[in-house]
Write a structure and sequence with these properties.
The chain is an alpha/beta fold and 294 residues long. It is built from twelve helices and eight strands. An eight-stranded mixed beta sheet has the order 1-2-4-3-5-6-7-8, with helices on both faces. It comes from Lophium mytilinum.
């Protein structure tokens, strides 16, 4: 990673300070920065909007950047209900409609991609114009009806019971330790310890009980039928050393007409946290896509 990418000590962290109410009276908080065409950033499971700080700093120069803390995550409210992808998609719909966002580019990382796929399924329309998917398979869990070849192609990474096992570990007295283990699999060894400790702290803003409740429906969902119906300009990004198989991004891109694809190499620090570990490449790839799709 080049010096220009910076460590946590060299990074301006963007914390959500704006609020909206969902249709079930939950307060969500979001970052709003810059001016220009709208660009919405949706984080992954147990992550936060602040983890997009290196993208916010870049794109606020040319866009109105919105980065939301999803329900239960970060600085948003943590009600006891609504921890399924469809509810998160409905919350995003509330954000888009309340801010009256149009000609919108949406960037999803990890579970954020699933939220976008669910949104496209539930709320088809013309508000979203461009899509960026970062490091997420159409299903995390292997359907027992799939052949080994199908499971590999789809990028599923574990058997369904493993989702319940992880959820149980998160609910246990060792839930925080289990979380650290999961997060460690998402980075390269080169990530500074200070940065990793901060990412862990951001994740633990979501109570482990709620993280467990959300993980199971997230992991067991299959969005392959939605992928096949996407007609919007799309960029799909993966990583060679991510715990998500590197073939996932090309597989998804091949099923979306005209989609672009970029897989970061080991040398480019193509981990699951590639937006943090190599923001210069991620930001340049997204910017090139936006310029070509405008």
């Amino acid at each position: 990673m080049s010096e220009a990418n910076g460590s946590l000590s060299q990074t301006e962290v963007y914390e959500p300070s704006n609020e909206l109410k969902t249709n079930d009276d939950v307060t969500l908080r979001y970052v709003l920065a810059g001016s220009g065409p709208p660009l919405l950033l949706i984080h992954g499971w147990s992550q936060t909007a602040a983890q997009f700080s290196k993208q916010i700093a870049e794109f606020k120069r040319s866009h109105t950047v919105i980065a939301i803390d999803l329900r239960g995550h970060g600085k948003s409210d943590k009600p006891e209900h609504g921890y399924r992808i469809s509810r998160l998609a409905a919350d995003v719909h509330d954000l888009i409609t309340q801010l009256n966002l149009n000609d919108l580019t949406v960037v999803g990382h990890s579970m954020g991609c699933s939220v976008i796929w669910c949104y496209l399924d539930l709320f088809p329309g013309t508000r979203i114009s461009r899509l960026v998917f970062i490091d997420e398979p159409v299903s995390l869990a292997i359907n027992p009806a799939w052949s080994e070849e199908e499971a590999k192609s789809l990028g599923a990474v574990f058997i369904p019971t493993a989702a319940y096992d992880l959820a149980a570990a998160l609910r246990s007295s060792d839930g925080e330790a289990a979380s650290v283990g999961v997060l460690a699999s998402m980075k390269t060894p080169e990530m500074p310890q200070e940065d990793f400790d901060w990412i862990v702290a951001e994740n633990l803003k979501m109570p482990r009980k709620l993280a467990a409740e959300l993980f199971v429906p997230h992991a067991l969902a299959d969005w392959s039928d939605v992928i096949s119906r996407i007609k919007l300009p799309t960029l799909v990004i993966g990583g060679e050393v991510s715990m998500i198989p590197e073939g996932v991004a090309p597989w998804i891109a091949a099923r979306i007409p005209g989609a672009k694809c970029k897989v970061l190499s080991k040398e480019e620090r193509g981990s699951h946290f590639m937006m943090w570990e190599n923001p210069s490449v991620i930001n340049a790839t997204i910017r090139e896509f936006l310029e070509d799709a405008s």
